[in-house]
Records
---
Amino acid sequence: MSLLEVRDLVTAYGSIEALHGPSFHVEEGEIVALLGANGAGKTTALRTISGLLRPRSGEVRFAGQRIDTQPAHEIVRLGLTQVPEGRWIFTLMTVEENLRLGAYVESGVPRAGLDRVFALFPRLEERRTQLAGTLSGGEQQMLAMARALMTRPRMLLLDEPSMGLAPVLVHLIFQKIAEINREGTTVLLVEQNAKAALRLAKRAYVLENGRVALEGPAADLARNEAVRRAYLGIGARAGG
């Protein structure tokens, strides 16, 4: 049994159908990348999995339990947390206040959670009393990830964590994702930087027009000519 199973998912915005029945799975301990052009349905898939959108049909199972009919806050309690595109931190609150809000499902003072995320992101500990809105873009992304980790998730959904960041910060963020995974958190990663995502992930799926167009080991997809042309900026080999 996979940790996350998505089956024949159909999700729409009003009369416009964004997902047309994709199916995919994530095993415990994996990093799986979900790739595709803008409008392919990647963010819609994450929002449906995390309970922010309700599918028209199909199902989502987490640790064997069907969750597509549950509200988002209950899904968080089950151990599945999303870091949204755009970070969505509370800019007028301090770093520590943002982190404490992330631990709302925990009872008492989240001391252990704070210690864990400060060990992972020392820069946030240095800025714990600073207003979140004054952080750099990379620091804000770290804060968004750290806030999600305060729930002690079994699985993390990451939506475009490298968006708008300088290359050196992209490298740092991907290092942190790998470290989070090594510590035991499963990751489903939506990312426009396909080259970095395929280096990090074990497996990957490519969405096109709300459907799974390609899937397989990340290393194999990185060598696939269609993927190389569409997402890696690499032309086909001569004669290919």
---
Amino acid sequence: MVDWRLFMTDTITEECRMRIAAVKELDRTHPAMVHTVTIPFFPQATCGSDDYALAEQCDIFGNSVGSEPLSAAITLSAAPDKMVINSEIHAVGGSTYARPKLNNLEDMKRHLFLPLSLGIKGFVFWQYRPERLGLESPAWGLTDLEGNMTPWLEAAIRINNALQANSSVILNAARPNAKVAVLNSQRAQLFDFCVDQKSMMYIKSVKGAHAMLRAGGYAVDIVGDRQVTEEYLKQYQVIYDPFPYYKDARTCQILKDWVAAGGTLIAESCFGGYSDDDGLHTMAQPGFDFSQVFQAKEAQVTTASSFQNAYDKEWATENSDGNLLNIDFSGKIYKGYYFYQSMAPQGAEVLAAFRDGSPAAVCGQYGQGQAIWIGSLLAYAYEAAGCKENAQLCAQLISSHSSVRPEIDTLEADTLCSALTAPEGQLLVADNLSEGDTVTIQAYGTRLAGQKIVNILTGQEISVQETQGVQTA
């Protein structure tokens, strides 16, 4: 199944190359653009679309549903040296029976400013007037059906005018300098599809890992299989490996060498349990001799939903807490999901314990680097079960096991800030998901460019205060 889906992916990638070649034969002046619909919306297993492979073919890369932070991050990561735009913003989506949300200014700001803060350079709304044909009618328009003004079109105009007035900063700004990456394996996606076509456990783990780290204030790249090379990984100091069940020897050797050279790896449960090289389950966990890296082996493993009887109506039964498992990190409880994989340390430092006292997370020293192994799925718990406290845990693990710090931080819970810096100035985007009205920004490694911050929509000015090298606004 994995080989078949990879063949389908290669076929679609080749078709993309042929189409662009046909365009270039007729027009060598204008850039060719391709856009995709990223996970979690259009999985590779059912669509055959590998963003990282397709991005190599075009001049400009784009995405659909780009106002979703993960989609924007994947598209930007897949095309690190190219202009990326949101070529199909789904701000007013719906269907014949499911009418669009009545978007206000705050909704439209989120659709545009979130991807902008990650490095997206342009936006196309789908579409100007609503559709009248098929399931998507009468939705997806900025105007109403007759072409009249709507509150969300008024908001889009207002935001557009503000962005155009600052276009030189936006277009010339460098992307956030990410020192943290999340692995997004196309082969692991396909393996997960083979095991359970409906769960999307791997894809939701990737989404949760990105959201967790982003909530901690970090700039985060999403690295695909094609990018896992010794040279490419040198730019990162921390790599988060969500639900790493499906691995291959080449990738594992590169990760080993990267840790040995000083990197910090944070990996979840079932590391290397299945091998892409021979199509078989590995004999011991962690697989691919990663016990040397984690300095620990698996002691016991089970799942929160345990297999009972194949002839019963339900094959599995959940424990009293559902699929969530308590993990105690230094007296504070965080949540893992589904997998219980206790460790037998072989020189590793024990970082956490399950409810029964057995090691739930360890940290091994390997060469100049460190490797943290967690015996459950933190990222999935964050994404699918709302365990938002796991973001604090990830931030603590990164701060205590690496030198990476957020360049710009916020003081209030459920808020974050991103900065785009260009020779012409600096654009700050504050994301406020809290119940409060203010976001307090603190800048450390990157100094705020100027003595004041100006709201580009209202003109309101805020002074920047500096105390002992820390700037606050």
